[in-house]
Specification:
This protein has 608 residues and is α/β, with parallel strands linked by helices. The chain has three domains: 323 residues, ABC transporter transmembrane region fold, CATH 1.20.1560; 163 residues, 3-Layer(aba) Sandwich (Rossmann fold), CATH 3.40.50; 75 residues, P-loop containing nucleotide triphosphate hydrolases (Rossmann fold). It is built from 20 helices and twelve strands. The strands form three sheets. It has a six-stranded mixed β-sheet, sandwiched between helices. Strands 4-3-6-7 form a four-stranded antiparallel β-sheet, with helices on one face. Strand 6 and strand 7 form a beta hairpin. The radius of gyration is 35 Å and the shape is elongated. The chain starts with a strand and ends with a helix. The N terminus and C terminus are likely disordered.
């Protein structure tokens, strides 16, 4: 009964996921679920058993003369004490529960963040991964963890109350069990109902991701100018509307089935137990005279408690089952195994990097991005990887940093296949600046040093910012290098232009201790003067170090010892600037075209 098919070829074990959810909750915060169970048991048992049934039974027993007044007083004091204890538990649980919720949210969020940070880069180019990631984060953003805790505790508390009440009823006449048995089948109905809810929500995941993208895009500064100066807003809005309309269709397709399951659940949990018990109790009281007034009253009160308890169990179990199915998403996300398997070696000081007969094809792509690529870079060299857009330059960087593994061939670090190294150890040898580098909503110092900064760190950051050419701009900000980038979280924050933002990212490289500087289009947002100064400072800062430029702009190539010209995913030619110019090949043609464009720009400026 525990296995539920959510697709034709996928099955999810509800009870296994309930246990998995409990495991995660206990790992995040043990007191949270324990106090929830205690508080729910105290509240439900007191409300539906002690107050509604047991106290009535004692009171009616005294009225009929079966018990003394002193017994009544003792019972009353006992009920009062239990009521006070219930209130104390409730107040303490409400307070501790709020605190525990924050701890649970923090702990599980950190678990998701840590997993997201270690998955393959390729995952971020895979829509299926984004669906899994979104469904995993919905565990927190949708409140599923808290809902699971409360519903699990409610099921436990309701079962305790139900067993207690049924015990009272069966002490009067065991025949009532016939009318109470249908309550047990409510769990089965609710289990399959939760399957439909999960299937429905699973089908809406992609639509919800489209909605979230549209909402996020309209609120982000990065897109504000383009949205206001083009018709793209109407296109995004249409996609948003289609996603909503698609969700409405999905909701309607499941509406009738869910209604039928709800009706069957109500019949089993309420109609049969109440009508059957009322009829049988009336028969015993009126016809056979085998049921006293006290017994009749207790049975009627008990069956109302049974009905209410069954309904609570049904609702809580339905929610619990549905939420437990969502934990399959979290389980799948946490169980993801990286395709880039880490090695065990620590990367030692850099001596050489070599690509040997490297072929690479992106997942799902038909054509190779690199094919039979061969090149070698030695310690202390300044190398340039140049070529037009689409030549394979960025793919070269991704493979070198082992964001992907080669399809064929091998990449050697100091003569050893890079698959044998720990990725973090290998990457720590590189100081990398990407073309699409990002700065974060942190202070400039923290963006450069990448940790909470001491005064010594701030001095290092200042030197790096001076070297990258960003210091003049940063020093003019309200709080200098302690200014937070963007005003999203700080009204005194500051924004940066594309060029200034790239300079801050370059400063991050200058602040590091590295063996190899790896610069992927590092000056794409810089003007020619800023680019020249940046290269001048880079040459000074990287004496006796290895530098690799990846660019389609050839200003960096002139400074390089060795130039590799890529085209069609392979090396077309290689050599020094003078050698390649003398050969008159592809590099010479590219250089002449770019040089003429710079000359035209200079002539225009002089004319103005």
């Amino acid at each position: 009964m525990g296995w539920i098919p959510v697709h034709e070829d996928v099955k999810v074990n509800v009870f296994k996921n309930i246990m998995y959810a409990l495991k995660i909750l206990f790992k995040a915060d043990k007191p949270f679920i324990i106090w929830l169970i205690i508080s729910q048991c105290a509240y439900i048992v007191f409300d539906l058993f002690f107050q509604s049934v047991l106290f009535l039974k004692v009171l009616l027993g005294i009225i009929e003369g079966n018990q003394s007044f002193s017994y009544y007083v003792k019972a009353l004091l006992a009920f009062f004490a239990i009521g006070i204890l219930n209130e104390l538990i409730s107040v303490f649980s409400d307070y501790s529960g709020l605190v525990a919720q924050k701890r649970v949210f923090k702990a599980v969020n950190n678990m998701i963040f840590e997993k997201a940070a270690e998955v393959d880069i390729s995952c971020y180019e895979d829509p299926e991964f984004y669906d899994k990631y979104q469904r995993a984060t919905e565990i927190l953003t949708g409140g599923y963890f808290i809902a699971f805790g409360y519903n699990f505790a409610a099921v436990i508390g309701s079962i305790v109350a139900l067993v207690s009440v049924i015990g009272i009823v069966l002490s009067i006449d065991k025949a009532y069990l016939i009318f109470l048995l249908p309550c047990a089948f409510v769990f089965v109905v609710e289990l399959f109902k939760s399957k439909l809810v999960y299937q429905r929500d699973l089908k809406m995941t992609t639509n919800n991701r489209v909605k979230a993208y549209a909402q996020r895009t309209l609120f982000l500064k990065d897109y504000s100018k383009d949205i206001r100066t083009s018709n793209v807003f109407s296109v995004i809005k249409r996609r948003f509307d289609r996603a909503v309309e698609s969700n409405v269709i999905i909701l309607k397709s499941y509406g009738i089935k869910l209604f039928i399951y709800s009706m069957v659940s109500s019949i089993l949990a309420e109609f049969i137990p109440i009508v059957g018990t009322y009829a049988f109790a009336g028969y015993q009281f009126i016809v056979t005279k085998t049921l006293a007034v006290s017994g009749f009253s207790v049975v009627l009160s008990s069956i109302n408690s049974v009905s209410e308890t069954s309904e609570r169990i049904a609702n809580a179990f339905s929610e619990l089952s549905a939420v437990a199915l969502y934990f399959q998403n979290l389980h799948d996300f946490f169980d993801y195994e990286s395709k880039v398997k880490p090695g065990k070696r620590k990367a030692e000081e850099f001596e050489s990097i070599e690509f040997k007969n490297v072929y690479f094809k992106y997942p799902g792509a038909e054509n190779y991005s690199l094919q039979n690529l061969n090149l070698k870079i030695e310690k202390g060299q300044t190398a340039a990887i140049v070529g037009v857009n689409g030549a394979g330059k960025t793919t070269f960087v991704k493979l070198l940093l082992r964001f992907y593994d080669v399809t064929e061939g091998e990449i050697l670090y100091n003569g050893i296949n890079i698959k044998e190294f720990e990725p973090e150890s290998l990457r720590s040898r590189f100081a990398t600046v990407f073309q699409d580098c990002k700065n974060f909503a942190l202070s400039v110092n923290e963006n450069v040093i990448c940790r909470n900064c001491s005064n010594e760190d701030k001095a290092v950051a200042e030197k790096a910012l001076r070297q990258s050419g960003a210091w003049d701009k940063v020093s003019s900000m309200p709080d200098g290098a302690d200014t937070v980038l963007t005003r999203e979280f700080d009204e005194n924050g500051a924004g940066l232009s594309g060029g200034e933002s790239q300079k801050v990212a370059i400063a991050r490289m200058f602040a590091r201790d590295f063996d190899i500087a790896l610069l992927d289009e590092p000056s794409s947002a810089l003007d020619p003067i800023a680019e020249y100064k940046m290269y001048e400072n880079l040459i000074e800062a990287t004496k006796n170090k290895t530098v690799v430029y990846i660019s389609h702009r050839l200003s960096s190539a002139v400074l390089s010892d060795k130039i590799f010209v890529l085209g069609g995913g392979t090396v077309l030619e290689s050599g020094s600037h003078s050698e390649l110019m003398a050969d008159g090949g592809e590099y010479a043609k590219m250089f002449e075209v770019q040089a003429s464009s710079y000359k035209k720009e200079g002539d225009t400026i002089e004319e103005e």
